[in-house]
Design a protein that fits this description.
heterodimer, A: alpha/beta, Rossmann fold, 13 strands, B: about 280 residues, 2 domains, two-stranded antiparallel sheet
Chain lengths: ~325, ~280
């Protein structure tokens, strides 16, 4: 997918993957994927659990050895030059691995020391990042006294201590309540504005749509589609979706009577989806056929629909 | 960018191209062991005091109970150089070796086991510039610091009890660190194989008999020849004999063998530990 009207500095590639493959025995967790990430882009890996997203992230960080294929991070192979590559990476792992033996501010400073950064740089930087993560008043608190959202923000603050050029975020908002998620998205958006390249995995559609300039949809270790969220929806779905619920027993039988309405029909156990350019008109057509769903909903098409179309399965479950 | 050590300088014509640093051991090592050590000291300062103290107190209690209590019944025994020494002076260096072993083993096994499997500390560290060798050396250094601390304290207590009769005895402190190094470098490698608490108990299962039977409380000659060979193959016996010789300033060819035993143990242990960390974290 070409990036429409990409500014000039976005054209420089910071991550190049060619035929990237990771096998555990006979099982291919990542099966020959290729992609490029230009500097400053927010790039998403979207897919269900077990699609190979985290494994890809680990290979980018140089903490997982690939079975075959090529990978270059800012020109270097992370497998051969792990320390050099990771000096410019920030990593937010799927599970917080904060240092529970250290207090909040020390978590940032000690982590910075792992990069060999001097105290004179780290002290003001730690305060700045606590401010950014809205944790300034928790500076001296113990880590285990923080809420889930605060721990996540601290993990993100920690990942920024070395002013990374690339930030890897593995399921950044999984397990957070909606309010905590929105705070996080806001912080990530600010980073993107500062020109940090974001690479994130998610199985949340709304997250991908909010944060990603471009994404690849992965399933079973392979790339199913690639493009901006809007382009993917344009290509693989319709503008609107009409969701109809007839009660769990009737959905399948009614589906046959709905043929011809909209562009495409998808029958799920709990509901029928009609892909259409105009949801209201389609709903009128349904009523005209004498069918009366228990509930009906017209909504905009989302990446969830793209994923359903590409894999025949929904993402979260 | 130059403030980021181990980063590989970015080249001038293109700020987004990294250059390799040309450091030895490539991905394994970034030359930043001290950050791992500093972290350990900071974390220990806040907690773990009771455990730290218990590792020190245990051999001291043995020294008092066995040395003073049992020693009053036994009187004098034959020392390394053939001279008669008090029983307490006989077992004190052995208990010092045990103390060094305990400190090193605690730090490099239980502590590492917890960080590896529960705190996920190393996973975090290895996503920075640190390599597995930095982490291994850092953790082992911490174990050595603890071993040195225990050894110094124990030697001081020996001094108070009037058991230090020659300046050579002060060599027991660095020798204890060598002993701790041997146990720590191996302990961490072995711990990396452990997955459950039950498996960790095996370590105690090996340590306790080694402590009791490594000529700690009585000479090796009480055993039949075959058993002697087994004990002489185990590391603690070499530590006990080494410190016992140093405590009275007697040096023989055996002194060199004991030191050599530990040097080999250290090198093999480091190779094992680094290989294991690499396997665990750079899969």
């Amino acid at each position: 997918m070409p990036n429409i009207a990409a500014p000039k500095q976005l054209t420089r590639t910071v991550i190049t993957a060619r035929g990237l493959t990771k096998k555990y025995g006979d099982f291919a967790a990542v099966n020959g994927i290729s992609f490029d990430v230009p500097a400053g882009e927010s790039f998403g890996l979207l897919g269900p659990n077990g699609a190979g997203k985290s494994t890809t992230m680990r290979m980018i960080g140089g903490v997982s050895q690939r079975t075959s294929g090529e990978l270059a991070i800012m020109g270097l192979d992370p497998e051969q030059h792990g320390p050099e590559v990771r000096a410019h990476l920030g990593v937010v792992p799927q599970q917080d691995n904060l240092d529970e033996d250290l207090r909040v501010r020390d978590n940032l400073i000690v982590y910075g020391r792992y990069f060999g950064l001097p105290h004179s740089y780290l002290r003001p930087k730690a305060d700045e990042l606590l401010e950014f993560a809205q944790l300034s008043d928790k500076a001296k608190a113990k880590v285990d006294s923080l809420s889930g959202g605060m721990k996540r923000r601290l993990t993100i603050a920690r990942s920024l201590i070395n002013e990374p050029k690339i930030l890897l975020l593995d399921e950044p908002t999984t397990g957070l309540d909606p309010q905590a998620r929105h705070i996080l998205w806001d912080r990530l958006f600010r980073l993107k504005e500062q020109g940090v390249t974001l690479v994130l995995t998610t199985h949340y559609m709304d997250e991908a749509e909010q944060l990603c300039d471009r994404l690849i949809v992965v399933d079973k270790g392979e790339i199913m589609a690639e493009g901006s969220p809007a382009a993917l929806i344009r290509e693989y779905s319709t503008r609107e979706v009409l969701e109809l619920r007839f009660g769990s027993e009737r959905n399948t039988t009614v589906a046959a009577q709905l043929e011809g309405i909209g562009e495409r029909l998808e029958t799920l156990p709990d509901r029928v989806l009609i892909y259409t350019h105009d949801g209201e008109t389609s709903l009128e057509q349904v009523s005209a056929r004498g069918l009366h769903p228990v509930t009906s909903l017209v909504r905009r098409s989302s990446l969830e629909d793209v994923f359903l179309r590409l894999t025949g399965r929904s993402l979260v479950d | 960018m130059s403030r980021i050590a181990g980063s590989g300088e970015t080249s001038s014509e293109d700020q987004l191209r990294l250059l390799p640093s040309g450091r030895p051991f490539g991905s394994l090592y970034s030359g930043n062991v001290r950050a791992v050590v500093a972290r350990g000291l900071k974390a220990t300062w806040g907690s773990n005091w009771a455990i730290m103290a218990s590792g020190f107190v245990e051999p001291v209690l043995f020294l008092i109970a066995m040395g003073i209590g049992l020693g009053s019944l036994i009187g004098t025994v034959e020392g390394p150089g053939g001279q008669e020494i008090g029983y307490i002076a006989y077992i004190a260096p052995a208990l010092l070796a045990v103390s060094a072993m305990n400190g090193a083993v605690y730090d490099s096994t239980w502590n590492v086991f917890f960080k590896l499997n529960f705190a996920k500390l190393y996973q975090g560290m290895l996503y920075t510039s640190l390599g597995p060798l930095d982490v291994a050396l850092g953790e082992i250094t911490l174990a050595l610091l603890r071993g040195a601390l225990y050894a110094t304290g124990f030697t001081a207590i020996m001094g108070v009890l009037g058991l230090i009769t020659t300046p050579w005895a002060l060599l027991m402190i660095p020798a204890s660190v060598v002993i701790a190094f041997g146990f720590a470098s191996f302990g961490m490698g072995i711990t990396s194989f452990m997955k459950t608490f039950q498996q960790m108990d095996w370590i105690n299962f090996i340590m306790l008999p080694m402590f009791l039977f490594s000529a700690t409380f009585y000479p090796l000659s009480v055993y039949p020849q075959a058993i002697q060979w087994v004990i002489q193959a185990l590391p603690l016996w070499h530590g006990v004999e080494l410190l016992r010789q140093l405590s009275v300033g007697t040096f023989t060819a055996a002194t060199g063998i004991h030191v050599l035993y530990y040097l080999v143990m250290i090198v093999l242990g480091l190779i094992l530990t680094t290989a294991r960390l690499r396997k665990l974290f750079l899969r």
